[in-house]
Amino acid sequence: MCTPKNAPKLQALSENPMVALTIDTDVHPPKILLLRGRAELDFVGGIPEEFLQATNTYQMMPAQRVEWEAEVRSLYYDGMVRIVVTPNWVKLIDFETTLPSAVEELIPQREERQRGSVSD
After folding, report:
1. Dihedral, 55, 45, 37, 23 alpha carbons, nearest 10
2. Tens digit of pLDDT for each residue in 12-54?
3. What is the DSSP string of 3-61?
4. Is residue 29 reached through a cis peptide bond, with omega within 30 degrees of 0 on the bond before it?
5. CA-CA distances (angstroms) from residue 49 to 23, 46, 55, 56?
6. 82 CB contacts (<8 Å, ≥6 apart)?
7. pLDDT, mean of residues 65-91
8. What is the largest CA-CA distance in the chain?
9. What is the rounded CA–CA span in Å between residue 39 and residue 19?
């Protein structure tokens, strides 16, 4: 992840680098990646290439892309900070083979209710 050098989160991460992230998709069924770990701050001169690559999904005409990149480079003239997270715990919830634990707990309760209403 990348952020401006003046972002308030940098002070917070300097004081406590432990983070928790949730990354989800805009598909159905959703896929959600949960992770916890330690963030390291990497001060970069210029714009990190992965920041530009991550924005390739933005719908732009080639000329718009050139103009947008020029704008980004002028805005972050002094560079950016790359936030590198090293995970120490990861879980994927894909709603097909894995569910959130709270939802998993509800399924047997629902089945019990359904069995009870069938026998009534």
Report:
1. -10
2. 999 999 999 999 988 888 899 999 999 999 999 999 999 988 8
3. EETT-HHHHHHHH--EEEEEEE-SSSS--EEEEEEEEEEEEESS--HHHHHHGGGS---
4. yes
5. 21, 9, 10, 11
6. 1, 2, 41, 42, 44, 48, 50, 51
7. 94
8. 72
9. 7
Q: 108 Cβ partners below 8 Å, 6+ apart?
A: none
Strand partners, 109: none
Contact call for residues 69 and 79 (beta carbons, < 8 A) = no
- What the block records as the tokens of 105 is 């707990």
Residues 3/52, Cβ–Cβ less than 8 Å? no
> What is the distance between the alpha carbons of residues 85 and 12, in angstroms, rounded to a whole number?
15
Spatial CA neighbour of 85 closest among 23, 27, 29: 23
Token pair for 60: 């732009």
